């Protein structure tokens, strides 16, 4: 039975290990359990997650067995920005840097399911996040539709993507592949542009939020592909060194991450930046198409089935069609990876009517 006597507390190191043992069936993918443990340890020791960046939480019943895990989840701290419109004669936006939390790996062992444990855990977690980080917000990516997490405050936001199959043929031109050491300087430009976007005089009275697209966030994503590639792609005698592509004029780029899943394998474009819309539209499309071709060819090189980009704008959809024609699909997801957001100040509201989530892309996923 669930109830107010249950507590949510940080997991011990031993419990973290046990939680992975429990949830391996859901998330180990093509890895065996031992390798999954190692991957999770690797992901927990990046600059983003070490030293308290990542926390594992367990719901237990102190009155029964305080070591029996009824439900568990993780939170990752990330840098984010909030801009709130103010109207005093002029309409201006004030941008604040805050901490945001990504909630992930929500899991109830099979024998305890359907008893309200995940619900109780999320309620306690929401209260704790609001208390400890009152000025911030949190997000999670629901794989069980739009309703369950909304009950506890995480409201569904735009969750669409474009996808197309890996591209077998074609010469990549007009771009340069990015190495990880090219990316810090690009992050500086990207972050400045995101801040500028949030500080513009608002067109409406919605709060705007964005995760900071910083280098340590990309490093966390890459640590997964770098761990998994040598295990699952032994026959490819190279490292996943190309981390994205940039157009020759340096104004548009994509950063990507390879996902070697058990059944579906894909190259995710985790961040897309366009610092200039000054080109004539067809030229613009051609430049972005060059980036998509680079992504499609890279997916093929790594034996991945497709390329996926979250929440693409219209010009990206047209550009993708230039290289992949009618194989491009645009999907509004209804059940998996539903980007869901909760402002920790309840009066701000959390739905898309109240909050505009800028740069709602895969890099923010945890
Ligand atoms: C999802 C999960 C955490 C729910 O845990 P739980 O302790 O059983 O949850 P609660 O008892 O608090 O709530 C149950 C409710 O969850 C929702 N739910 C559970 N699984 C669902 C699914 N696959 N699709 C939609 N809703 C689902 C339903 O609203 C359900 O209510 P119902 O039993 O009246 O239909 C658990 O089923 C699990 O660990 N699944 C495998 C891992 C997973 O998918 N995690 C979620 C990742 S976003």
From TrEMBL:
Stored InterPro entries: Acyl_CoA_acyltransferase, GNAT_LYC1-like, LAT
Species of the source: Sphaerosporella brunnea
Residue ranges of every copy of the LYC1 C-terminal domain listed in the record: 161-365
Domain of life: Eukaryota
A Pfam family per the record: GNAT_LYC1-like
PANTHER family, per database record: LYSINE ACETYLTRANSFERASE, N-ACETYLTRANSFERASE DOMAIN-CONTAINING PROTEIN
The protein's name: LYC1 C-terminal domain-containing protein
Lineage of the organism: Eukaryota, Fungi, Dikarya, Ascomycota, Pezizomycotina
